[in-house]
Design goal:
By secondary structure, chain A is α/β, with parallel strands linked by helices. Chain A has eight helices and ten strands. The longest helix of chain A is centred in the C-terminal third of the chain and has 16 residues. The mean pLDDT of chain B is about 85. The chains are: A alpha/beta, B mainly alpha.
Chain lengths: ~240, ~280
Amino acid sequence: MSHALLEAHGLNVFRGEKLILSDLRFDFDKGEKIAVIGRNGVGKTTLLLALAGLTRYEGELLFQNKPCHHGEHQQQIGYVPQRSQVRWDLPLQSLDVVMSGTAGNPHFRGRAKSKERLELSYQALLEVGALPLAKRTINSLSGGQAQRVLIARSLVTSPDILLLDEPLVGLDTFALKQVLDVLDARSQMGTLVIAAMHELDIVKSSFKRVIFIENKNSVIDGNPSEVLERLYRAEVVNK
Amino acid sequence: MTTLYTIFVAPFEYNFMKNALLVILIAGVLAPITGFWALNRRMVYMMDAMSHSILPGVILSAMFGVSYLYGGLVSALALGLIVIVLSQRNRAPEDGAIGVASQVLFATGVLLASQNTDSRSFNHILFGNPFSAKASDITLMLITTLVAISLIAVLHRELVASTFDHEHARAIGVKVLRVDLLLILCIAATTVIGLSSVGVLMTISLGITPAVTMRILQVSFMKARYGAVMIGVFAGLSGILTSYHFGVPAGPAVALICAAILFISLIQKSLANSSLTKEPRKSLR
């Protein structure tokens, strides 16, 4: 029996009716930190959406050796979308955003759980180094601060898997390091971290495993040096 | 002292004013709460369309001698259903679906009204008349309001999560479509209650203007709901007193008072901004 946390066998991923990725096979372990790379529009976000249960897939996806039914496993999977996808114009405080991460979890339902929700939200903000931002309205946050608040929202339910869609886009060097440190710390705590990335230099220096989506039918899985060499070769051929 | 009593207390010695007070308090609490969520979830057009769409149900209720509230609620739900069928099942753009559905229902209502209703009751529907509310209507309105407010309170966390980021909300197990449908139901209830208080055309003012005022004043999301309700209740009370003392329709009076509060908040905001921009210059000197 496999000890992988997340496994896929012959996974076909769709966006609407369109097949985006075909016959995916992988197994990811606890504490791994994996970068998903590839051209824009090749299916990096769609893969994350499938793992988060937000788009249709066919084939076998196993979570801890059991079929992954997203209804049951939703609390074990934290999803951090691209920053541009959320409503930064709302006058919400960072703490409200983090607390909203408990909304779908039946465990946190009811007034009796409000203290627990609050404590876990402060804890998540502390973990990403954003505790001083708790009472700040989100429309006043910088890119790096906003990203850390989004990550805290996903950590509030202590997920086993953390999926991040382009978490470093638009961040300055300092903010970038803060976010990478949070991902490192989580990975060391045993969380499986999977991030769709564009920053190849950071992929090379900070990740030990890379999934390169070349096209619908070709996905390369390996260590950064091997995979990036393959990517550069593919780019030369395409030119 | 006597003048204050004459203006603020004496009118409520009449039964019709007592009823009007209850009706306007009910609408003044519910409309800003649903309006707050409609504004933040970008459903203002839906709320506006709802106010037009309830017309056929209201006219049919009048024809069959049942309360406006039942017919209005059925019409409002018909709008929600048509929009969902057009946009979710047939991929029509949502605002287009709302436009088509509301105009079809409004046109049906106007046709029915032209055949069956006298112009005076049609005016009451459009511009409201809280002074003619009956005890049975008030009870029904109160129950509807309590149900709608309880629903919104229960859904609070789901509403915040899916308003900020609906995709993430889906990922963590929030049933976003169900939340949307329940909110549409609350907006429908608000519109129908607004019908008897400020009229269908002014409900949007009582719902949206207080929420917009809170956004202008940059009041935090959680406090803004209470602020909006305070504006709604104040505008409602002032509106019926203005209507009583000056003989003007209550609905437009409430709508204009809401707009006046918004205007004052704009001035206050620009004054605050200008004093903020002046301060650093002083310190530089």
